[in-house]
Q: What sequence folds into this?
């Protein structure tokens, strides 16, 4: 019985040490998620800007954005795909920018009449990564964290 207790105890210590070391990767994982998703949306926004006539045509005939007139949808969608990824990469207003891109992602999926299974899977991946940023914030490597530290240090010193 004593040997079993020692085995359980040493396994528990090993698990806690491994888990603690893996947790050190959390800021890097959040940074990687922010950069990966931001690049996907930013490059899409750049493509829209490069050929604005085609963008307007796509929003008028291909994308079925609900409620909004196609021109407004084109401007708002493109602006969101340019501005929000830059904020997300910097980690500035991380939760806001991730939530904004999450909704852009949803609108993109529901606006297409047909979507290939691989593209749909990619949108799901982006959605999950964006929700992680919404839930956990931008992580240690985000300007949000610096701003929060400055704000809380100022409040604590007053």
A:
């Amino acid at each position: 019985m004593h040997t079993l207790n020692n085995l359980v105890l040493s396994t528990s210590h090993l698990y806690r040490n491994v888990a603690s070391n893996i947790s050190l990767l959390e800021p890097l994982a959040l940074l990687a998620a922010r950069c990966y998703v931001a690049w996907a949306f930013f490059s899409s926004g750049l493509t829209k800007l490069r050929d604005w006539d085609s963008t307007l045509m796509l929003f008028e005939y291909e994308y079925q954005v609900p409620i909004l007139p196609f021109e407004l949808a084109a401007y708002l969608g493109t602006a969101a795909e340019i501005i929000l990824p830059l904020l997300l990469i910097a980690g500035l207003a991380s939760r806001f920018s991730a939530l904004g891109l999450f909704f852009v992602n949803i609108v993109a999926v529901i606006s297409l009449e047909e979507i290939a299974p691989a593209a749909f899977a990619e949108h799901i991946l982006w959605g999950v990564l964006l929700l992680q940023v919404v839930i956990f914030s931008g992580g240690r490597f985000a300007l949000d964290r610096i701003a929060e530290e400055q704000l809380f240090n100022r409040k604590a010193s007053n």
